[in-house]
Amino acid sequence: MSDNNFDKNSKKNVVQFALMLSVICSLLITGAASGLKHLQQENIKLDKKANILKAANLIKGSNKPPKNEILRLYQEHIKAGIVNQDGQPVENETNDVLHLYYYHTNNVIDGYILPINTKGLWGKIQGYLAFENDGQTVSGFSVFSHAETPGLGGEIENAWFRKNFKGKKILNSQNRFVSVGIAKGKVKNLPKNLQDHYVDGISGATLTGQYLSEGIKSTLTKYEPVSILFRQKRLKALDQ
Amino acid sequence: MDELFSLFINSVFIGNILLAYFLGMCSFIAVSKNIQTASGLGFAVIFVLAITSPLNWLIYHGLLAPGALSWIGLPDIDLSFLKYITFIAVIAALVQAVEMIIDKFSPVLYASLGVFLPLIAVNCAILGTSLFMVERNYTFIESIVFGAGSGTGWMLAIVSMAAIRQKMAYADIPKNLDGFGITMIVAGLMAMTFMMFSGITL
Amino acid sequence: MTNETTGYKDILLKGIWRENPVAYQVLGICSALAVTVKMSTAIVMSLALTLVTAFSSMIISSMRNKIPSNIRIIAELAVIASMVIVTDEILKAFFYDISKQLSIFVGLIITNCIVLGRAEAFALANNPLDSFVDGIANGLGYSLILIAVAFIRELLGAGEFFGYPIIPSVFYDAGYQNMGLMLLAPGAFFIIGLLVWLKNSISESNK
């Protein structure tokens, strides 16, 4: 198109060009976004499942197994459940029900996993806290999403931080509910009677630790009725 | 109110958009040679950030977010993938307006900022602040505070760097380290000092 | 034919070494520091930026005689933004975990001075194929620096390479500890400052 009379700065060309560019760009972007949306949502769902499995210690370490493995493990061992405010399993989803996941082997409940949804330093922290079926011992912790500073608060998603949660207890020696929290500094510097209820803090990320501790405590308080049922050994099998 | 103050302090010191998140480096390196120009640019950035952040919030939550269009009866539409292009358009438009304002009121400042004024439009810190605002799900008021805070943090970093570099003009720096290299190392030391703020609880 | 190949070789050499976008032109630093904590994120980011620069330079170059001057920058930004959005969508669909870690930095490729810089400095004055090669060249130059920084930071800061621990455990038992500073902001600044010093010294001694 080496037309000698073509003036690229003419008003007509500006409008034509802008329109063409807008149309082409919009088609391209929208095409990519809608075409790939399905795949992206699958990825998010898969990631959630992987994190639930991580909290339940069915996936160890930081490496994710292939998709089929994740789906198989989830299918075989995890069942989503709804309970009411008293911890009793219910069928209908109303506004004040609580969501949780049961970790089972052949319908026998080995533990339960609670979703943690708390405010962090920069944004929401979402994760899962898993318990053994004794209703008081933590068996695992995983972080699904957060907006904390990489290298500082962001360490909450790393294996070294998460594995410290295993074995911590939310009831103290007088059987009172004390929750589990993140210490400021190392746990070994705390008095002996507190060591079972804290994990090592992340240096440089005290605030993230505080927010996470508060969030865990308020979530666990809401789910206490469920934990109590487990302590009383009233929830043993899935089809009760 | 406490929360907002805490957010402001956090974004200036602990999560300083430049020293902790590395955004806004290009103009940081180029303009930090002189304190006057650095402050001028810094104020311009604070202004642009304090306006684009809430403006983009309105556009995102009013038009683009999943479910945002329910006020015209289209609750299922999710246009969030358009956020990059709309944010940058808003930023470019606002920077154009700021340019015209500065040219009118202070031609001296306009001349000394030169090409760096329009370059604010592609300053990663501006787009980055809007993107963080979306990712962290701030409220409208929080987005204003966060924008102003990020801008202030950026200005603090660039003015400090200008002050240090003016002093360094008397130092004997190896030729190949001069300019970019030494600026990076000084920035690293500044980043280290800013990290000490993370130990403060308000 | 010889002219073309030496032409490409020249473009490649300039982009990758002689006029390296990060070390020489001082462009694109923002993401160079943030995503270099791990090699995996650095590589994906490098790939994304190289492809975006190459394709947007090529597209802009093919339109260079038609773009009206007064909407030039906006038109370039529109093309670049579209490329970036498509890249982001592809990453979220096929490389979900990495895209989570890259978070906003993929979007920030739009404001990455390298992309816009090459469009302005090269694509507007050269043909599409040359522009594509120039985009690849500068992208590779950027990748070089990024990967070097990431390699050092991951090795010293976490004792790993691509997520695999390579510092033998005997070192840790003997008292060796990972240099945590490398994983944080200051570490990135120091490494990149020192690397550029090194690169400039090498370039100078070669002259």
If you had to describe this structure to a student in words, what would you say it looks like?
The complex is a heterotrimer of chains A (240), B (202) and C (207). With 240 residues, chain A is α+β, with helices and mostly antiparallel strands. Chain A contains 4 helices and 7 strands. In chain A, the strands form 2 sheets. Chain A has a 5-stranded antiparallel sheet, with helices on both faces. In chain A, a hairpin with a 4-residue loop joins strand 3 and strand 4. Chain A starts with 10 loop residues before the first helix and ends in a 9-residue tail after the last helix. Chain B is an all-alpha fold and 202 residues long. Chain B has 8 helices and no strands. In chain B, helix 3 crosses helix 4 and helix 7 packs across helix 8. The mean pLDDT of chain B is 85. A two-stranded antiparallel sheet of chain C has the order 1-2. In chain C, helix 4 packs across helix 5. Classes of the chains: A alpha+beta (240), B mainly alpha (202), C mainly alpha (207). Chains B and C meet through helix 2, helix 4, helix 6 and helix 8 of B and helix 2, helix 4 and helix 9 of C.
Blueprint (SSEs and pairs):
The complex is a heterotrimer of chains A (240), B (202) and C (207).
Chain A: H1 11-55, H2 67-77, E1 78-83, E2 98-105, E3 108-119, E4 124-132, E5 138-145, H3 159-162, E6 181-182, E7 198-199, H4 206-231
Parallel strand pairs in A: 6-7
Antiparallel strand pairs in A: 1-2, 2-3, 3-4, 4-5
Helix pairs in contact in A: 1-2
Chain B: H1 2-14, H2 25-31, H3 35-64, H4 83-105, H5 107-113, H6 124-135, H7 140-168, H8 180-195
Helix pairs in contact in B: 1-7, 3-4, 3-6, 3-7, 4-5, 4-6, 6-7, 7-8
Chain C: H1 2-18, H2 29-34, H3 39-62, H4 72-94, H5 96-102, H6 113-121, H7 128-158, E1 160-161, E2 164-165, H8 169-173, H9 185-206
C-alpha end-to-end distance of chain C: 29 Å
Number of strands of chain C: 2
**What overall form of chain C do the CA principal axes indicate?**
globular
From the spread of the alpha carbons, the general shape of chain B counts as globular
Q: End-to-end span of chain B in angstroms?
A: 13 Å
Helix content of chain B: 55-70%
Sheet with the most strands: spatial strand order of chain C? 1-2
**Oligomer status:** heterotrimer
Largest sheet of chain C: 2 strands, antiparallel
Structural class call of chain B reads: mainly alpha
For the secondary structure, the number of strands of chain B is: 0
Structural class of chain C: mainly alpha
Rg for CA atoms of chain B: 18 Å
N-to-C series of helices and strands of chain C: HHHHHHHEEHH
How much of the residues of chain C is beta strand, in percent?
under 5%
Largest interface: B-C, 44 and 44 residues
